Known about the structure:
The chain is of the alpha/beta class.
Amino acid sequence: MKTIDLNCDIGEDFGRYTLANQKEILQYVTSCNIACGFHAGDPSVMRETVKIAVENGVKIGAHPGLPDLVGFGRREMAITYQEAYDMVVYQVGALQAFLTIEGEKMQHVKPHGALYNMAAKDPEIAEAIAKAIFDISPDLILFGLASSELTKAGEKLGLRTAHEVFADRTYQQDGTLTPRKQPKAMITDQSEAAQQVIRMVKEGKVKSCQGVDVLLRADTVCIHGDGDHAVEFAKFIKQQLQNHDIEVKAFI
Length: 252
C-alpha cells in the first residue's frame, strides 16, 4: 500500500488577525508547519499553535520565511547565503523553545513562500537552508519541493529529506510551481486537486501547464491552511486518498 504524509501550514495568525480554523484542520493532517514570526505568527500564536498540535498528535515542524509580514513572505528578497542561514537558525530556535516547554520534539523544517521557491531554484540559498537545519540537528527532516535544488542540498548533507507536492497548485514543465501571480496557478476544484495528488503519489507524475508530464517523488502533500475552505479541502483530500488505498501517515 502506498503511504503519504499530509502537511499543513498553520500558526499564521498575527495579533488580532485570524486566518484559519487550526483546531479543526489538524484533525485531517499528519504534520504541520508552524510560522515563526517573520512572515506571520507571533510569540503567543506560536505557543498556542504548538499546544493545539500536541493535543492533536500532529508532528510539528518549523516554517521559517522571509522577514515580510506585509507581503506574507511571498515577495522575493535579495539575500546572501549567510542571511538565509541566520534567518533559518533564528526562527527554528524560537519555535524549538516553545516545543521544549511542551516536552515535544521538532520533526522537520519547511521554508515558507518566497524563501521556499528561491531555494527550489538557487543552489546557494538551498545549501544555506540545508546547512542551517543540519547544524541545528542532523535528526531534523527537511521538507522541500520535490526534485528541487533544496531537496538535493538536503540529501547531499545527509539530512532525511521529504519531497513535497502540492494539492492546490499547478506545475510548470521544469517541476516548479506556477507563480501565484500567473493565471491558473491555483487549483480550486476539489476533485481536480484530488486526482492530481493521487496520480503524484501512485505514479510519480504530474501534468504541467504546458501539457507535459513531469516526474517527481511524493513523500508529503501540502494542504494550505489559510484558504476559505481549508478544512473542507483537507477532509476531502484525505478521504479521497484513503478511498484509493493510500495510507495517510506522518513521514518518519
